[in-house]
Amino acid sequence: MTMKSGKPFLDLRREKARLFLMFCGVVGSGELGSPAYAQLITQSFPSELPGYSADSTGIVSLREVLRQPHAGINVGSFIFHPSVSQKVGYNGSILGASHTGGLELDSMAGLGLNSNWSRHSFGVSASVKNTAYPINNKYYPSLSEAGYTDWNVAAGGGLNLGHDTLSAGYSHAVKHLSATQLGNFGVGYPVPYAVDDARLSYRKNWTRIALIPSVAYDDFSFGEAAGSIPTAGRNTHSLSHQLETQMLQLRYEISKGNALLGIIRTSEAQFVSVSDGHPADYISGGGFVGLDLRADAVWQYRALIGAETRHFVRGGGRTLTTPTAELEVIWMPDKLDTFTLTGQRGLFDPTSAFSRNQIVSTVQLEEERELLRDVFFSGQVGFARTDSFGASAGSAGHQQVQFRGGAGVDWQFNRDFKLTLKYMYTKSKSKLTGSEEGNETGIGSGTYTNQTVSLGVAFTR
Fold it and tell me: Which domain of life does the UniProt lineage start with (predicted)?
């Protein structure tokens, strides 16, 4: 990294952090079957905190990114990062039910821009992804209507105020709920929704202590699915809501790369009023303590434990209180292998029109190995469970359990191009709980078996 004035490389750690963030955006998009839930641990353990985070470059594929960095396109004091990918494969359960398999085509394009300044930082990004199912079958002649397009734009920056940092960001995204995602009961054909997110944080640094207050505002707007089957056109407008979140983090550096963490978080949600529903407005709060031990070259740990409570202020419903925990353990026994164990349990907003909220628990073990120079293997197994409570007081709830496993091979055949072959197996089962216990089957039930395989090529500069 060089400054506009031509000064030499400023800080190896900052460059590794920049590459790590780029790596997460490029490689993370190909993650095998991960639930679409934002983890608190990713918010509370930023990838780069001066004096707190250790070198995380031991991870196998990240070492390769550092060995062959995507230089981008330099324009003045900014760096542009274009990316394009195309995948073709087979999806055995497009609608989360039998006889809904078919050809899948995934096309993605993105562009990122990052400043190359010595003090402050600024970046913007935009991406679009189209998923198409071009072939119908005799059971579902409208299967091609399950295709969809996701896109997002985002901007963010930070001001260096001496020892402190002020950060702000905004993003707008259009996404879709899938029938095969955890907790999406009643979803057949993909359901579109839009999210606007704005956030602001301030980091106050002392010698060993950092205090980080932050606020965030999210606006979720859900729509109606396409398709010609009864469950396809279900309207999920009742899930639309606004969410305000306030969080205070306290970090104490035990030693270089190791820290203790404490978090207090509160949030308030206001759901839209619908004629035939029960708005699930709530206030919630939680407290968490954690460890961030990143200094060791072989073992690294990140863990949070605490509790959350949620009280419904409109529409009825009992108060929920549940333990919350998140864990990430990385073992790097040598330069060729990385093992990562992740897990979480917590309260999440509903992704089904039949639910008031969800308690989600997941655990996943992943191995990554460098088979040959520039050739990487990844394999994973995982378990996930959600308990979704009814949309009205006393109504039945849903429980869904998923077992997942998969493997993939990446070949980075030059600095900019990569070939990827992936396979994923998912076994999902759901049932009604409460007053109407019983197993569920069919489209929108959450009970299915799915196998997917894909071959793709990606360009990233």
Answer: Bacteria
The token duo for 457 is: 């090529």
Which of 122, 131, 126, 140 lies closest to 91 in space, CA to CA? Answer: 131
Q: How many domains does the chain have?
A: 1
| Closest listed residue to residue 54, CA positions, set 25, 20, 3 | 20
The pLDDT assigned to 432 comes to 76
CB 439 within 8 A of CB 448: no
Domain containing 239: what range? 12-460
How many other C-beta atoms are found inside a 10 Å radius of the C-beta of residue 338?
23
- State which residues of the chain have pLDDT below 50: 1-42, 44-58, 66
What is the DSSP secondary structure assignment for residue 190, as one 8-state letter? P
Distance CA 446, CA 97 (A): 8
DSSP 224: B
Instruction: With CA atoms as reference, report the closest residue to 136 among 95, 187, 102.
Output: 102
CA separation (Å) from 158 to 123, 197, 251? 9, 17, 19
Helix, strand, or coil here: 184? coil
Report pLDDT for 37. 44
Evaluated on CA atoms 19, 25, 28, 29, the torsion sign reads: negative
Assess contact for 64 and 376: CB atoms under 8 A.
yes
Place of tokens 């006889």: 99
Enumerate the H helices of 31-71 as residue ranges.
40-44, 60-67
Alpha-carbon torsion 224, 227, 231, 233, what sign?
positive
Q: What is the CATH number of the domain that holds 380?
A: 2.40.160
Nearest CA to 441 out of 430, 426, 425 is that of 430
- Closest by Cα among 343, 354, 335 to 432: 354
Residue 235 Cα distances to 224, 226, 279, 280, angstroms: 4, 10, 15, 17
Report the C-alpha gap between 355 and 347 in whole angstroms.
Answer: 13
First to last CA, the chain: 15
Joined together, the tokens standing for residue 443 give: 């489209």
Whether 4 is covered by a domain: the verdict is no
Of 341, 343, 346, 381, residue with least CA distance to 360: 346
* Rounded-to-integer distance, Cα 61 and Cα 319, Å: 44
The DSSP code sequence of 416-444 is SEEEEEEEEEEEEEEEEEGGG-EE--STT
Alpha-carbon gap, residue 310 to 266, rounded angstroms:
10
The alpha carbon torsion through 204, 206, 211, 214 (nearest 10 deg) reads 20
Model confidence, pTM: 0.82
In a domain, 413, yes or no: yes
Which residues are registered as beta bridge partners of 356? none
pLDDT of residue 438: 53
Asked if residue 6 is part of any domain, the answer here is no
